[in-house]
Specification:
This protein is of the alpha+beta class and 346 residues long. 50% of the residues lie in helices and 16% in strands. The protein has helices at 20-33, 37-40, 63-69, 83-92, 154-167, 206-218, 220-243, 246-277, 284-306, 311-343; strands at 3-4, 43-49, 53-59, 74-77, 95-102, 119-128, 133-138, 148-153, 191-195. The strands form 2 sheets. Strands 1, 4, 5, 6, 7, 8 and 9 form a 7-stranded antiparallel sheet that branches.
């Protein structure tokens, strides 16, 4: 192909992280720096509970400023008038474009092509404008972290960009919420350009690890206090199921399952990120937390599919949530001990 930013780019496929927007940045950062620690270690969690249980992720710095601090030039745009020219010029000048598209127009995505309008981010790796062909880095289906190379027509990318601009004011258009600190005047960037500069590659980013440990230590009381929200949710969950009419109850359970999906994805990320710099792989507490959340999701999903509320299963789900609460306390205390020990050696 005629335009390319670098031949040794490798899609990041270790774990799901936040959303497709951040997954694109992970691939590029990892390819330039040799690791993506500065992006991965930019947050800390807090459990929240209202009608649902969630992990609220507090972000520390905007992705753009993180890259700039590592000497990687980047610029984001809310909207451009001629996306075709912007892509062409950026590749020619050594910039990697992350382009916002509507999945409805992306032909390589068989799960969404011509089926559903949803906002998405793709990396443009190479383009042959004469042949209307480009190579992109993309996932095979929603929430998959197994990103790889695909060939797509440039026309699909251009149409996808236009439809992204068209539908981006609709809240239901986005699968995930982009953090405010990554937005431009409250809007999701429609294109980000990242300079493909040659940098010294390191397996680990010690600066990011030190900052990550400091963030956890600074917010330790808040993190630990929030675990009690799991126990609070048990009572809310049982009470809500008992009070709702059957039809409303199934809708509620569907939303609970969606929230659980997000928690499980986060806990898998957390297990991965701690394993990067501390000996905590295959932690029994972490494995049990993910196991019980997965079991609860499976129980609720079966009830939804069978259209039958089983009160015994509801109480069993509440029991498992209380077990998770205790495992979370043990797990995070282990993390604190190891962070304290590691920080003395950095």
């Amino acid at each position: 192909m005629s335009d390319s930013f670098c031949s040794d780019i490798v899609p990041f496929d270790k774990v799901w992280f936040k959303d497709c927007f951040h997954m694109a940045f992970l691939t590029i950062t990892n390819s330039i720096l040799g690791n993506a620690d500065c992006i991965l270690m930019n947050q800390f969690p807090v459990y929240e509970c209202d009608s649902f249980l969630r992990v609220h992720v507090n972000h520390i710095n905007p992705v753009s400023s993180i890259l700039s601090s590592r000497g990687i030039s980047n610029i984001s745009f809310k909207k451009v008038e001629d996306i075709n020219t912007v892509i062409q010029n950026s590749l020619h000048n050594g910039f990697i474009p992350i382009v916002a598209v509507d999945l409805y127009d992306l032909s390589v995505r068989k799960d969404t092509y011509r089926k559903v309008h949803k906002g998405h981010s793709v990396i443009i790796h190479e383009c042959d404008f004469d042949k209307d062909l480009c190579q992109i880095i993309e996932q095979p289906f929603m929430f998959s972290y197994k990103y790889r190379f695909y060939f797509e027509s440039i026309s699909c990318i251009l149409n996808g960009y236009d439809d992204f601009i068209k539908y981006s004011n609709n809240d239901k258009f986005f699968i995930s919420t982009i953090p405010d600190i990554c937005c431009i005047n409250g809007s999701v960037p429609s294109i980000c350009l990242i300079a493909a500069e040659k940098k010294s590659k390191q397996i680990r980013d010690i600066q990011s690890i030190k900052q990550f440990i400091e963030i956890w230590e600074k917010n330790w009381d808040t993190i630990m206090d929030s675990i009690l929200q799991i126990d609070s949710f048990c009572n809310i969950f049982v009470k809500t199921v008992n009070e709702l009419k059957e039809r409303e109850c199934f809708i509620y359970l569907q939303d609970v399952v969606i929230a659980l999906n997000d928690i499980i994805l986060y806990k898998r990320y957390e297990e991965y990120i701690f394993g990067l710099y501390m000996d905590i792989h295959n932690s029994q507490e972490s494995n049990n937390i993910i196991f019980y959340y997965t079991m609860i999701r499976a129980m609720l999903s079966k009830m939804i599919i069978r259209k039958r509320i089983d009160n015994n299963h509801i109480f069993e789900c509440a029991r498992m949530l209380r077990i998770i609460c205790e495992y979370e306390k043990k797990y995070y205390n282990c993390v604190l001990d190891k962070n304290t020990s590691i920080s003395k050696t950095l």
